[in-house]
Amino acid sequence: MGSTNSTLIKIPNVEELMQETGFSTAHIIRLHDRFKELDKERRGYLCPRDFEAIKGLAINPIGDRIIGAFFSPGRETVDFYTFVRILAHFRPADNSRPKESSSPEPINSRTNKLKFVFQLYDLDKDGKISRIDLLKVLRGMLEMQVTEEQLDSIVDRTIQEADLDGDDAISFEEFRKSLEKVNIDHKMSIRFLR
Ligand SMILES: [Ca+2]
Ligand SMILES: [Ca+2]
């Protein structure tokens, strides 16, 4: 497959990227094609508005927050490597892979997926989802669908249900516990490759 090889040659350190993310050669090539497709102006990087073309994201309630996760604070662009690394969080967990205690936890493990979602809510990055964080995120997600009063009561209930140590905020451990029964793979499946 000549075209396959020529694509890979254009992606330096591709082996490293595959190892880190667990994506196969075929995945990387498809992601590279998708990246180029989204990069309409062929600048070699994507801006937040390029992500608006991703269908599943526009209708995902936390779509905006997910788009935000591709961009580190103060940066308005994302390159192919960062793009692939972030997308690796959405890869279904691979249970068939033999677990080696020496190797670092894969990006798509349940814990890393939960961490990824957690930081979408922890707006001020202080390690806790506070009432204010939650209010802002939910306001963005629900926008016109609820009144401020309803929003307040949703926030109250969410915090009450998850907050175990009574500090009026949700730590990562509390977050993890509250989502114990949730199939995170299912929740985090987004069709980027369509
Ligand atoms: Ca916070
Ligand atoms: Ca707490």
How do the SSEs run, as a string of H and E? HHHHHHHHEHHEHH
Number of helices: 12
Distance between the first and last residues' Cα: 22 Å
Strand content: under 5%
Keywords: Calcium, Cell membrane, Cytoplasm, Lipoprotein, Membrane, Metal-binding, Myristate, Nucleus, Phosphoprotein, Protein transport, Repeat, Transport
InterPro entries: Calcineurin_B_homologous (IPR051875), EF-hand-dom_pair (IPR011992), EF_Hand_1_Ca_BS (IPR018247), EF_hand_dom (IPR002048)
Family: Belongs to the calcineurin regulatory subunit family. CHP subfamily.
Protein name: EF-hand domain-containing protein
SSE diagram, text form:
Blueprint: H1 2-9, H2 14-21, H3 25-38, H4 48-51, H5 55-59, H6 63-69, H7 80-88, H8 110-121, E1 128-130, H9 131-142, H10 148-162, E2 169-171, H11 172-178, H12 184-187
Antiparallel strand pairs: 1-2
One calcium ion binds near residues 165, 169 and 174.
Give a description of the structure.
The protein has helices at residues 2-9, 14-21, 25-38, 48-51, 55-59, 63-69, 80-88, 110-121, 131-142, 148-162, 172-178, 184-187; strands spanning 128-130, 169-171. The protein has a two-stranded antiparallel ribbon with strand order 1-2. The model has no long low-confidence stretch (mean pLDDT 83). The protein folds into 2 domains: 14-91, Orthogonal Bundle (Recoverin, domain 1), CATH 1.10.238.10; 108-194, EF-hand (Recoverin, domain 1, Orthogonal Bundle). Helix 9 crosses helix 10 (148-162). It has 12 helices and 2 strands; from the N terminus they run H-H-H-H-H-H-H-H-E-H-H-E-H-H. The longest helix is centred in the C-terminal third of the chain and has 15 residues, at 148-162. Helices cover 54% and strands 3% of the residues. With 194 residues, it is mainly α. One calcium ion binds at residues 163, 165, 167, 169-171, 174.
